[in-house]
Specification:
mainly beta, GMP Synthetase, Chain A, domain 3, Thrombin, subunit H, 3 domains, 6-stranded antiparallel beta barrel, 5 helices, 30 strands
Length: about 400
């Protein structure tokens, strides 16, 4: 977008649903809006956003200080050189028109400021927020057939997670499902692991891990962490794809929002799923997993690089993950579908896979009830990571 609208500093959606853009030079407004209208016509996103982006009386234009390309370049530079303790995540934040750095609650902020100044990056380009460390999620669920998105899965080595999407592998005449890579229990790319639904009992086998790239990227954005990946995703080849055992569906129940868990009772399922390859800041997204059921909230940032399990001996960095707030999660929801439900005339849209959750408070069922956030890998990143095209 910025190549066609020079000085564009971010595109997002506010709480009313209106598109918002930043421009460095407001005198370029008319030309930028025309380019955005042209660009929006072919965007694979929901109709309300597509039909209002760049429309003069529907799009809010704000004074920006930085072009988005500047924010991205500084994000890469900071990732490559800053190694201060408590560095949890970094994002070229289109909603703030800043590089947003998330640090732990006890990390000294001046240590970060000094390191960033030494790179020649202006203080005004960087915003900080604080968080407790993110942790990977996992636990149990009921035995359900046919399988579908949101159900519990298990491995003998990796514990319990949620099934993402049953998929066809395009051009390979193969069927299986997607879920989070860390659900295999391994970070070095092991394949051949058996996956079960719901528990590791003989007869519950539903597939074998087939594509699971190792967590070994050496990209400078990995911030020196050896366990680094561009998506937390793996593909499992299904053992039985008969209609009684396997179906392209997302199971759902009564939804919770505003940090409230949903019901864990299945009401029905969505079928006829299409793909919405990427999300935008301010967008509403839903997730379903075995611990908190269906919950929904708002995308707070896109394509940030969070560090997971930062307080352990094996921290991990996932590149270009999205963060959503107000969405209750819990151990066992990892790998579950992030999606948007059908709203006539649109079908349900697959958006990505949940990879982690955070809570400031949980209830006795290990469900987030305050300060809830999730991280997820977008669909296009999952496909690029696994070098396949999938049809959910």
């Amino acid at each position: 977008m910025e190549a066609r609208a020079p000085g564009l500093g971010g595109v997002w959606q506010d709480s009313s649903g209106a598109p918002v853009i930043y421009l460095k030079d407001l005198s370029n407004r008319s030309a930028a809006m025309a380019e955005l209208r042209s660009f929006a016509a072919t965007m694979p996103v929901a109709v309300p956003f597509r039909s209002t982006l760049g429309v003069e009386d529907r799009t809010i234009v704000l004074q920006g200080q930085f072009a988005f390309s500047e924010l991205v370049a500084w994000t890469h530079e900071i990732s490559a050189h800053v190694r201060a303790p408590g560095f949890l995540s970094i994002d070229a934040d289109e909603g703030l028109n800043r590089v947003r750095i998330t640090i732990s609650k006890t990390a000294p902020i001046e240590q970060f400021r000094d390191a960033i100044r030494s790179l020649g990056i202006p203080d005004s380009a960087v915003a900080f927020d604080r968080s407790s460390p993110f942790v990977l999620t996992s636990t149990f669920q009921d035995h359900v057939r046919p399988t579908g998105g949101g159900l519990q899965i298990a491995t003998t080595s990796g514990g319990f997670c949620s099934l993402g999407y049953n998929v066809d592998v395009q051009f390979y005449a193969e069927e299986g499902f997607l879920t989070a890579s860390h659900c295999s229990g391994y970070f070095n790319g092991f394949t051949g692991t058996t996956v079960y639904q719901a528990t590791t009992t003989s007869g519950n086998e539903i597939g074998t891990v087939s594509i699971n790239p190792a967590w070994n990227l050496t990209n400078s954005d990995c911030r020196g962490v050896t366990l680094c990946n561009d998506a937390d995703a793996m593909y499992v080849h299904s053992a039985d794809t008969s209609a009684a055992s396997w179906s392209k569906r997302i199971y759902y129940g009564s939804a919770g929002n505003n940090n409230s868990p949903g019901s864990t009772t299945i009401i029905s399922q969505y079928t006829g799923i299409h793909v919405l390859g990427y999300a935008w800041e301010g967008m509403t997204v839903y997730k379903v997993g075995r611990t908190t059921g269906v919950t929904y909230g708002t995308v707070a940032s896109t394509c940030e690089n969070p560090m997971i399990d930062s307080l352990t001996a094996t921290p991990k960095v996932i590149l270009c993950a999205d963060r959503a707030t107000g969405i209750s999660g819990g151990h066992g929801d990892s790998g579950g579908p992030v999606y948007y439900p059908p709203v006539s005339p649109d079908p349900p849209y697959a958006i990505g896979l949940m990879l982690s959750s955070f809570a400031t408070s949980v209830n006795s069922n290990d469900q987030c009830i305050a300060g809830c956030q999730i991280l997820f890998s977008e669909w296009y990143n999952v496909q690029s990571h696994l070098s396949r095209y999938f049809s959910p």
